[in-house]
Amino acid sequence: MDPRQTRGYRNRNPGNIDHVPANRWQGLDDPPIEAPPVGGRPRFARFVSHAYGIRALAVLLTTYQDRHGLRTIRGIIGRWAPGSENNTEAYVGAVARQMDRHPRAELDLHRFEDLRPLVEAIITHELGGNPYDRGTIEAGLRLAGVTAGGRAAVARSGTARAAAGTAAAGVGGVAATEVLGQLAPHLGSAAELARALGPWVVAALLVATAAWFVWQRARQSA
Questions:
Q1: Strand ranges, E, within the chain
Q2: Are 163 and 179 in contact (CB under 8 A)?
Q3: Angle 204-206-212 (CA atoms, 0-180°, nearest 5)?
């Protein structure tokens, strides 16, 4: 079957994430839940774009690592696709084969090199193929705060200070979220909280970070 004909693709939710009213994902569509499918019940979330659906998938996976300590394909997929409604072992095997990694190999989902292939493998399994080009996948990961090069690239460059300067000039919406992605390695759990609360809290956090950089620079030059 063409993956573009699947329910997950139609909902722009390639991870087939259930709609839970308490989970106020960025980029939820209106209405946020799919129309009742023929012969079934509405269940899955709907997003305004495929990038936001990919973002939700990536954020949920990193939450499994950060909050639940799951760092292997077996551990992550065991929670993502529990045996109560999935053939979990088959799912684990399919993801491990596509990633060319051992099911018990440790991953770091804050690294692009680990998160991207895991996201792509899950999309392939959920939709029966991966209908997305490289740019769409990377756009979703950027919204989740993970870019090619990861923490090391941010640390080596002046990206954090440049992003803080942008924040001081005023940012909002998707732009604020993307800048937060560049700053996330410097912000720790505050970044996760800001993503959960939405873009205006992100903007406030970025302005505060910009002020911190200004203070640091003033102290160094004193």
A1: 28-33, 45-47
A2: yes
A3: 110
Beta bridge partners of residue 28, listed in sequence order: 47
Give me 53's structure tokens. 């659906």
Residue 191 identity (one-letter amino acid): A
Q: Which of 134, 166, 165, 163 is nearest to 148 (CA)?
A: 134
Any idea which residue has 């102290």 for tokens?
Answer: 219
Please list, in sequence order, all residues whose beta carbon lies within 8 angstroms of the beta carbon of residue 101, skipping any fewer than 6 positions away: 73, 107, 117
Q: How many CB atoms lie within 10 A of CB 53?
A: 31
Environment class of 151 (CB within 10 Å of its CB; exposed 0-12, middle 13-18, buried 19+): middle
Is the bond preceding 31 in cis, omega lying within 30 degrees of 0?
Answer: yes
Model pLDDT for residues 163-215, shown as the tens digit of each residue: 333 333 343 444 444 445 444 444 444 555 555 555 555 566 666 666 655 55
Q: Which of 91, 68, 69, 112 is nearest to 15 (CA)?
A: 91
Q: Which two tokens stand for residue 82?
A: 């529990």
Cβ of 190: how many Cβ atoms within 10 Å? Answer: 16
